[in-house]
Amino acid sequence: MTGNWLIELTGIVLTALLAFTVGMFYGGLRRKVIARAQNRVGPPVYQNFLDLLKLQGKTTNVTHGLMTHLAPVWVLVAAITALLFIPVLHGGLWFPNFTFKGDLIFLLYLMVMGSLGMALGVGETGNPNGAIGVSRGLSLITGYEIPFVLSLVAIMIQFHTTSLTDLMHYQQATGHWIARENPFAFLAALFSVLGMFHYSPFDIIGAPAELASGPMSEFGGKYLGSLMTGGSIFAFVKLVLITDLFLGGAGHPDAYTGAAGVLLGLVELVIKTFLLYMIPVSIGIVMPRFRTEQAVRFFWRWPLLFGALGIIWAVFWK
Amino acid sequence: MGIIYVLGILIIGALAAFFVDDLNRKWTGPVAMLAGFGAAAAFAFLPGGIVRWRILGFSMHWETDALAGFFAWIVLGLSALALMYSVKYMEGKARQGYFYASFLTSVAGMFGVAVSKDLLSFFIFWEIMTWTSFLLAIYNAYYGVETKGIKYIIFSAIGAYAMLTAIVLALGQYHSLEFSDLMAAGAFRFSSGNWYIPVLLLLGFAVKAAVLPLHVWAPAVYPKTPMSFTAVFSGAMSKMGILGMLLILTGIFRSATGWELTLVRWVLGWLGGLTAAWATLQAIRQNDAKDLLAWSSVAQLGYIVTAVSTGTRLGLMAALYLALLHAAFKGSLFMVAGAVEKQAGTTDFRRISGLIKRMPWTFLTALIAIISLAGIPPLGGFVGKWLLYESLISETHAYFLVILIFFASTSAFLYSYRFLFGLFLGQEEEEAKQITEVSWWMLIPMLALSAVSVVTGMYPGLIFRPAARALESIGLPAGQWDMSILSNVWGNQTDVFTVGSTVGILFVLWALFITFKGKKNTRWLTTKEISTSGEIPAPEDNCTFQRGFFQPFERAVGRLYRSSMDQLWEDIGAALEAFFGFIRKIYTGNAQTYAMYVIIFVVLLILFRNYIF
């Protein structure tokens, strides 16, 4: 954090805008991809922006109490805060924001803040479908967080750092992605990402047919709009985190600087995150839905094994 | 002389409360509260000093060094607030003299344990604290008191006998009971040849800290004790076990290498981790707020035990930090349970719901405490979790233990949510409409304890500094601690002040946006006006989802839930009973058999006289 506060503030706003735009477009792309797979035309790619405009433009909004009122705020705050602590591009190319002020353990905990705030809001609505969704969602967290932690611990001990910037720097300096240096940890993290996105086969939380979209069922208008914004930013956060951790991050400050460097870096980031994003999306297209306990048990089997192998790999590495 | 004044105020307060209760019941609570605050004030303003005296040839040594001060503040601060809470909580209940006298004596016992510098006075105060807490544990004449209370006293007795044996052995070996003498002689080292002394002492402390498999008394007794004392019971008294572990293990930590440290890290660390995981799994399936909190206390103590077992800079700091923070948030959570119990008559999730609108301040306390307990930034609990993880990853390299701890702590989100949802969220019961907020006498202590979590979320240095002095006072390296920047041994940092202010500013901004955007057209509905199947539930209907809340999780965990630690002890009990039943057969009641025993004994004596005499 150097320079004056105006530049810092601009950095924060620009980062949030970038995350918002990319996240919303990815959401639209997902709808398009699913539609094409099902042989439909599908909505335009910018459909999510239209939806958001419609939601924010609703004249009547309905809420059930203070926690419900604030639930979207929790989601959004958690997403933006996490975004500010994750480096978007390699050092110097994009605003550093607070990337030196939080490490991976902190990010791990910050990333559940939104879900828990949301869960509280859902609980207050009094809608039983919402509470059932929360029960499923929290159970699922215990499933996918464990392999994720295993893979994080593996790379922490392998590179003797808990800082994301250090890990990115290592990959930049050596040119080796951590996905190559510790493939098992990468595999475990990939499995966790499937769970984090809550797409099929892990979409039991808001299963539309049986739960009336579960936790979301009581939210509409400006509330759903904020949730959508938060969700889009958070999707970007998760993708950038995995890209930074395992896929070498984006941008090459040694080769290109200035506007060209930023542009190239962003293009690289978009390509990497998009390809990464297509993994949960394409698996979601073909997979049927797991029951909650099946999903949790799934994460406690293979992904857990890969994570453990990742740790063993890290211990015997070098 | 401060020690004498504190103990004096507490004991006189106990006697005064006991006798005032006979004169005018209205004054019992305030008298006890005054004694509690008086003791805290005396400790704050009078120099602690050193007290030495001799009785029956044993020397007693009490001293308030930084470590004693740290734990004494947990005890006195929490107790004073709990006593203030008690005034209204115990209003209208029977046997208040008995309650407050036991309460204050128990506080005196805990304070004594904290300041004791020799094993004998440590043990005496330890027993005072145990016995008075037993009296409070059986205060409520509930169904099953004889089995649950007895569980506590049996396990405490096992711990006490273990400690007493260790004390006698230590006296025989080293001719002194001073901690400093014993430490210098290496009495607490496993390599000293008297390895059973530290093992027996640790056994006694493990009972109090409710470490697996000695924890079974805690979930039985915590929910049945009056909540104002359970706050202290779980918040402060269990920490005495942690203090004892610290005192005993210091010598091993100072040596910094060797098999003893490895042994402690493996055995104690894994026991702590297993305690945390097991108790968390149990807490998830409780249907009563008090049972849930009791299991959660066991789990949190598990983290602290693991933190102590590391013996490293970050780990020990995590232990002290979590000890204080747990006292704050679990203290206020038990008070919340007490408040709900007092106003609604029950803390069973299946019988009440939707209290948020009736008891908003209680909910706020519960919310802050739960966020802190779950370790979500930006509140204080997160700092403790951070220190513990970083210590296990970067200092002791206990990679699989950290996964176990992380599993426990992630699963803790489940019961954390259940506590808030079960009591405060969901649809309102018709009968709950007349429930009101508790009195400010109860709210102020609760809010004060929540404030600890909020402040330490941004300025954990406020605790780091006294804790670092405490560690240095027993000769352990504590190093430099910043006010709000946490850093691990690899130099990676987390600045909780930046985190806290970012979250705070963003939260306020977006909350303002969502509140004022279309404010006029935002309708605030009741919890009955929900969009389920196009039907609105009737006033008497309650669709809150409470029964089998975490059934999917329980199914996923599966077989583990079928085993029970209580069953293990019952099996051990049955085996012992069978064994003693067999021994009893010696006493046949037949004079001829006894005569035969005498003859056999004499014959044996004659046969082996050369070996015996």
Shape of chain B: globular
The biggest sheet of chain B amounts to: 2 strands, antiparallel
Structural class computed from helices and strand pairing of chain A: mainly alpha
The average pLDDT of chain A is 88
Pair of chains with the largest interface and how many residues each contributes:
A-B, 82 and 76 residues
Question: What features would you highlight for this structure?
Answer:
heterodimer; A: 318 residues; mainly alpha; 13 helices; B: 613 residues; two-stranded antiparallel ribbon; 69% helix
Characterization of this structure:
The complex is a heterodimer of chains A (318) and B (613). By secondary structure, chain A is mainly alpha-helical. Chain A has one domain (5-316). Chain A is built from 13 helices and one strand; from the N terminus they run ααβααααααααααα. Chain A has helices at 5-37, 47-57, 66-84, 104-125, 128-159, 164-174, 178-181, 183-196, 208-211, 221-246, 258-286, 292-299, 302-316; one strand at 61-63. In chain A, α8 (183-196) packs antiparallel against α13. The two termini of chain A are 34 Å apart. The mean pLDDT of chain A is 88. Chain B is mainly alpha-helical and 613 residues long. The mean pLDDT of chain B is 88. Among the domains of chain B are: 256-489, no CATH class; 564-612. In chain B, the strands form two sheets. Chain B has a two-stranded antiparallel ribbon with strand order 1-2. A two-stranded antiparallel ribbon of chain B has the order 3-4. Chain B has 23 helices and five strands. Chains A and B meet through β1, α3, α4, α5 and α10 of A and α14, α15, α16, β4 and α19 of B.
